Amino acid sequence: MFNVNQPLAERLRPQSLDEIIGQPHLVGSQGVLRGLLKTGFLPSMIFWGPPGVGKTTLAIVLANQIKANISFLSAISAGVKEIRDVIQKARSYTKSILFIDEIHRFNKSQQDALLGAVEKGILTLIGATTENPSFEVNAALLSRCQVYRLHELAQEDLLSLVDHAISADEKLRQKEIHVEESEALLRLSGGDARKLLNLLEITVMSEEETVVRINNEKVMAAAQSRTAMYDKQGEQHYDIISAFIKSIRGSDPNAAVYYLARMIAGGEDPKFIARRLVILASEDIGNANPTALVMATTTFQAVSFVGYPEAEIILSQCTTYLASSSKSNASYRAIQEAKQVVSNTGDLPIPLHLRNAPTRLMKEMGYGSGYLYAHDYPGNFVEQEYLPESIAATKLYDPGENPREAEIRKRLKSIWHEKYGY
Q1: Which residues of the chain are modeled with pLDDT < 50?
Q2: CA dihedral 55, 59, 60, 63 (to 10 degrees)
Q3: Which of 68, 72, 75, 102 has its CA 20 to 30 A from that of 110?
Q4: Rounded to whole angstroms, how far apart are CA atoms 40 and 11?
Q5: In CATH, what is the architecture of 155-223?
């Protein structure tokens, strides 16, 4: 008998890999986790992805598959003491998994408390995070874990989930359900399977009739909203951050600060906003105004220890500064072009005069021979070839059209003359 108080998403939680919808790169026939399960060994890992895509479910399924004891901690409420208690209990099990939800919220001391147990194999750590772990998880802990990205569920996955819920759930099967329109279900759920299922259940159970016809109007009424509110992991999240970035790139501080206010009102993590400003400062401003990156980096540091509400002032200052700054994506284009050259040409031999020569044999082989030390020459420059021979004189950095980079172009032309076409 099903639990009438249990939400639909919980009642339908998958019990095996075959029941999981989406994430074929992890759980499909050739998925990496399915392959690992065949060996019976699981490394410590971090699941990175938006809410409602199956991070917790996947951890439970993996634990069941290898017959491991699984303990749950939430980074919001657990401290070092709770971590140590779980580690102590794990010693009594042959296989033990510790699942930590929102691991990005753990501070350094909490993360450090896990290192020894993970290193010695006392337990297998599975962390779940909606944030980029390279920013939020200590390097020491991150190096001991495999990071697996979980993607937002596609529309066809969500529709399959709705069909599965209607046919498989004992409570929903008590009614005859027809989905005539699905746009509101998909839009309000924002790719979150948990939210989708619970919204479906609310819509169905708000109808007294045995036959329920689901349309957009009924879904919106059940959700008690005519528009999707700002959702930090839903469609609104991505649309607003996109408009925010494009407004700064387009040098409109008014639009930029408006979208900033939208994110602040929605409770967006100030560090998420600040990280995007750091990236933009390099990608879209670059050498047109190198101070922009300094400003953005300082902003990230400041909001990290100030927090709301004062952080909004710092974010506003940085946003308006970056939006008002000269723009250049020359550095971004340079690395993209360079990566393409590397992809096309492979591992070209480094010119001998640029190679390191720490041993006598290397010196005898000509490593470092003929290298000209720039500081021994007037103006700290001497012309010599730095690129591999087959791509000599290839221009990758083309300064942008702005006053600061115009000076950079002028200097490069004065020292390299016509070599790179500056």
Answers
A1: 1, 225-229
A2: 170
A3: 68
A4: 28
A5: Orthogonal Bundle (1.10)
Distance between CA atoms of residues 100 and 59, nearest Å: 10
In angstroms, rounded to a whole number, what is the distance separating the alpha carbons of residues 256 and 253? 5
Measured from the Cβ of residue 6, the count of other Cβ atoms closer than 10 Å reads: 12
- How many angstroms from the chain centroid is the CA of residue 402? 32
Cβ(27)–Cβ(17) under 8 Å?
yes
> What is residue 78's predicted lDDT score, i.e. its pLDDT?
82
What pLDDT sits at residue 108? 83
Q: Dihedral sign, CA of 9, 11, 17, 19? A: negative
Residue-by-residue DSSP string for 105-138: G--HHHHHHHHHHHHHTSSEEEEEESS-HHHHS-
Contact 333, 288 (CB under 8 A): no
Three-state secondary structure along 196-218?
HHHHHHHHHHCCCCCEEEECHHH
The strand pair at 96-101 and 69-74 is best described as parallel
Stated as kind and residue range, the H or E segment containing 176 is strand 176-179
For residue 268, give the H/E element and its range: none
Structural fold of domain 235-324: Zinc Finger, Delta Prime; domain 3 (1.20.272)
Q: Give 17-72 as a DSSP string.
A: GGG--S-HHHHSTT-HHHHHHHHT----EEEE--TTSSHHHHHHHHHHHTT-EEEE
Q: Using the structure block, give the residue that is written with the tokens 């690395």.
A: 335
* Domain 23-149, CATH among 3.40.50.300, 3.40.50.280, 1.10.10.10, 2.60.40.10: 3.40.50.300
User: What is residue 76's predicted lDDT score, i.e. its pLDDT?
Assistant: 77
Q: pTM for the complete prediction?
A: 0.55
What is the token pair recorded at 264?
């602040």
Query: Is residue 142 within 8 Å of 111, Cβ to Cβ?
Result: no
Closest CA to 68 of 110, 96, 107: 96
**Strand-pair partners of 45:** 126, 146
